[in-house]
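Here is the promised in-class demo. Please do not try to memorize the tokens; focus on the logic of going from shape to residues.
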């Protein structure tokens, strides 16, 4: 089983997104590793980048509407008091968004749009608020409406790309990332995010191109090398994986998942000594890295340290109860120690979580 698949990147700090209305800052996803219940999980299925900097997401009412498509003429002027009332609700909605009170934000954006249907920036804010409560269909509808009126607004295309990713509509996500790249072609993070989507759908050479572009634009950060190592793992290029991970650790020696993955790469080459050394570092640098405990448990299983395997896989399950692989390797250790009942219970749970290999092994252990 390829443990290298369980890796995902530590994106560094914040990256700027410049639109025709605001200079927004979106925080990159702060998750280093995937959920092992699904070895194909993508870090960008999380919508947290939309919400981390919500105080900067929505244009203030003072921003000019220059460049807006003129599709919203009503043929009559709104009463001044309606416009003023809409502005008040809009600012209240923004304040609620800053405080992550998404329900209140939606309520006030609704009020603002009822008072002034031409206040099209409100669709963007309401879309972010809907994303905050995981109402993705409503969120997407509002962001699409915003983009209809502001077709050259970078933020609208970027948020659409991320929501489509969360909905696993990867073809559409790639299309929207393409739009963001058309608008700003030298922003490395767009290539990085799209690269992970290409991995998700098995277009590895397209992913390779995107991560190479990340490295070209930002050779002194880990993102491109780490993403490219993931692609190479899918292409069984273990030499390339090791080289890229060494580059990551040259830049950031405390990168937990790079240490884990490098250790796993050595394990795949039969080098258990170096494997344990790097995986131990992964746990040292991030004690909640359940993937690293799972990795170390599997190495210990190979070495015949069955109690060590049980301890590490149990720790992984404490951190993430949905780790099918942790149940799988713990079952094997329990069986070796004579606990057939416990082994079969773990295999059953592993299979329930989607590991087909567990059911194959049950035919041997549990008859």
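The designed amino acids, position by position:
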């Amino acid at each position: 089983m390829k443990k290298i698949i369980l890796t995902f990147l530590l994106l560094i700090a914040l990256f700027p997104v410049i639109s025709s209305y605001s200079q927004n800052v979106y925080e990159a996803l702060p998750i280093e590793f995937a959920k092992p219940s699904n070895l194909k999980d993508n870090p960008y299925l999380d919508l947290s980048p939309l919400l981390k900097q919500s105080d900067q997401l929505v244009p203030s009412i003072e921003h000019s509407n220059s460049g807006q498509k003129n599709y919203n003429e009503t043929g009559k002027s709104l009463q001044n008091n309606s416009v003023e009332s809409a502005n008040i609700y809009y600012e209240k909605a923004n304040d609620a968004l800053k405080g992550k009170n998404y329900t209140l934000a939606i309520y006030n954006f609704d009020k603002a749009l009822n008072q002034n249907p031409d206040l099209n920036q409100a669709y963007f804010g309401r879309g972010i608020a809907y994303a905050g409560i995981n109402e993705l269909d409503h969120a997407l509808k509002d962001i699409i409406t915003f983009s209809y009126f502001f077709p050259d607004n970078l933020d609208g295309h970027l948020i659409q790309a991320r929501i489509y990713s969360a909905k696993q509509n990867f073809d559409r996500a790639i299309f929207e990332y393409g739009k963001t790249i058309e608008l700003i072609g030298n922003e490395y993070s767009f290539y990085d995010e799209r690269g992970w989507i290409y991995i998700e759908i098995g277009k590895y050479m397209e992913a390779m191109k995107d991560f190479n572009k990340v490295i070209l634009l930002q050779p002194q950060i880990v993102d491109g090398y780490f993403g490219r190592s993931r692609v190479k793992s899918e292409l069984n290029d273990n030499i390339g994986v090791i080289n890229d991970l060494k580059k990551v650790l040259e830049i950031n020696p405390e990168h937990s998942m790079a240490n884990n993955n490098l250790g796993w790469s050595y394990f795949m080459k039969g080098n258990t000594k170096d494997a344990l050394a790097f995986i131990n570092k992964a746990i040292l640098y991030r004690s909640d890295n359940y993937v690293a405990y799972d990795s170390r448990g599997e190495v210990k299983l190979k070495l015949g340290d069955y109690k060590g395997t049980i301890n590490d896989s149990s720790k992984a399950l404490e951190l993430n109860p949905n780790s099918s692989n942790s149940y799988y390797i713990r079952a094997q250790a329990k069986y070796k120690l004579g606990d057939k009942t416990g082994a079969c219970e773990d295999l059953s749970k592993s299979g329930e979580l989607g590991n087909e290999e567990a059911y194959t092994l049950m035919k041997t252990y549990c008859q």
